[in-house]
Specification:
Blueprint lengths: L1 E5 L8 H14 L5 E6 L4 H5 L11 H7 L8 E2 L5 E3 L8 H4 L9 H11 L7 E6 L5 H9 L2 E7 L4 H15 L7 E8 L6 H14 L12 H5 L7 H4 L4 H23 L1
Parallel strand pairs: 1-5, 1-6, 2-4, 2-5, 6-7
Antiparallel strand pairs: 3-4
Helix pairs in contact: 1-11, 5-6
The chain binds adenosine-5'-diphosphate and magnesium ion.
Protein name: Chromosome segregation ATPase
Organism: Moraxella cuniculi DSM 21768
Family: To B.subtilis soj.
Length: 262
C-alpha cells in the first residue's frame, strides 16, 4: 500500500482536481484499489465524487477528533473509489488539537490501527490537502511517503511552494520516508509564453521530479465535479481525461520502480 498526499498551500492550483482524477484513473483504468481521504474542510473532493458532504455518518473530523476507527468512516462512491469524506466539521481542528502532544500523528496512528486490524486493503491511499500548512496538512505529511505537488505555471509559483518544501524537510525528522514524489504542472496553457517560461524554471529547479505529463486547462475538468463525476465518468475522451490517464501511468511506473528496488 502506498500513501500519497496531494499538497500545495496555494489554493486553486488543481489539488482537488488532481486527487480526484488520479484516484479515479488508478481505480477505473489501472484497476487498483484506491482510498481517497479528503483533508480539506471545504469537502470539494467529497462532493466531486458525488457524495453529499453534509449527509455523511462519519467524516475525517470524527476520525481525528473523536477516535472513530478510520475504516468505519470509509464510504463506497459510485466512481469506484472509496472515500473518507470531509466537511466543515474539520475546520476547527487546529484549535481542538492545540496542546495535544501527539497531534501531528493522529492520522498516521489511525491508518496504522486500521492496518493492524486488517481493515485497510488498498493499493493506494490518496489524500487531498487543504490550501494551508495547518495541523491537518501536517498530519497528512506525517502519514505519507510521497507528496505530489500540483503547480500552476504562473509568477510566484515557486515562491509559494518554498514553505511547503521547508515543512517537508522539517517533517523528515518525524517521518524519514517523506519525500516529494512529483511536481505536476496544472492548468497548463501551451500557447502562453509565461507558462512555458515558468515550466522551464520548474524543470530546472525540480529536475526529474517534474512529471512529463502536464495537465492542460480543459473546461471538462472544471465541469465534471458538478455532475459528481470524475473526468472518466464525465467525458473520458477529453484532453483532461487523457492527461490524467498519462499522469496515472507515470505514478504507477514510479510504484513499479520502487517495488523493484525494494
Ligand atoms: N486543468 C484544469 N482545467 C480547467 N479547470 C481546472 C483545471 N484544474 C482545476 N480546474 C478548476 O480550477 C479550480 C481550482 O481547482 P482545484 O482542483 O479545486 O484546486 P485546489 O484544490 O488546489 O484549490 C476549480 O474550479 C477546478 O474545477
Ligand atoms: Mg482543493
Amino acid at each position: 500500500m502506498e500513501i500519497i498526499a496531494v499538497a500545495n498551500q496555494k489554493g486553486g492550483v488543481g489539488k482537488t482536481t488532481t486527487t480526484v482524477n488520479l484516484a479515479a484513473a488508478l481505480s477505473l483504468i489501472a484497476k487498483k484499489k484506491v482510498l481517497l481521504i479528503d483533508l480539506d474542510s471545504q469537502g470539494n473532493a467529497t462532493t466531486s465524487l458525488g457524495l453529499d458532504k453534509n449527509a455523511l455518518t462519519h467524516t475525517m473530523a470524527d476520525v481525528l477528533l473523536d477516535g472513530v476507527p478510520l475504516a468505519d468512516a470509509i464510504i463506497k462512491s459510485e466512481q469506484g473509489v472509496d472515500v473518507i469524506g470531509a466537511n466543515r466539521d474539520l475546520a476547527g481542528i487546529d484549535v481542538s488539537l492545540a496542546g495535544v502532544s501527539d497531534a501531528p500523528f493522529l492520522l498516521r496512528q489511525a491508518i496504522a490501527d486500521a492496518k493492524a486490524a486488517n481493515r485497510l486493503d488498498y493499493d493506494y491511499i490518496i489524500m487531498d490537502c487543504a490550501p494551508s500548512l495547518s495541523m491537518i496538512t501536517v498530519n497528512a505529511l506525517a502519514a505519507t511517503e510521497g507528496v505530489i505537488i500540483p503547480m500552476q505555471c504562473e509568477y510566484y509559483a515557486l515562491e509559494g511552494v518554498a514553505d511547503l518544501i521547508a515543512t517537508i524537510d522539517k517533517l523528515k525528522n518525524i517521518n524519514p520516508n517523506l519525500s516529494i514524489r512529483g511536481v505536476v504542472r496544472t492548468l497548463f496553457d501551451y500557447r502562453n509564453t509565461l507558462a512555458q517560461d515558468v515550466s522551464a524554471e520548474l524543470v530546472r529547479h525540480f529536475g526529474d521530479l517534474v512529471y512529463q505529463t502536464s495537465i492542460p486547462r480543459n473546461v471538462r475538468l472544471a465541469e465534471a465535479p458538478s455532475f459528481g463525476q470524475s473526468i472518466f465518468g464525465y467525458e473520458k475522451s477529453s484532453k483532461g481525461a487523457i492527461a490524467y490517464h498519462m499522469l496515472m501511468n507515470e505514478v504507477v511506473a514510479q510504484s513499479k520502480a520502487r517495488n523493484l528496488s525494494a
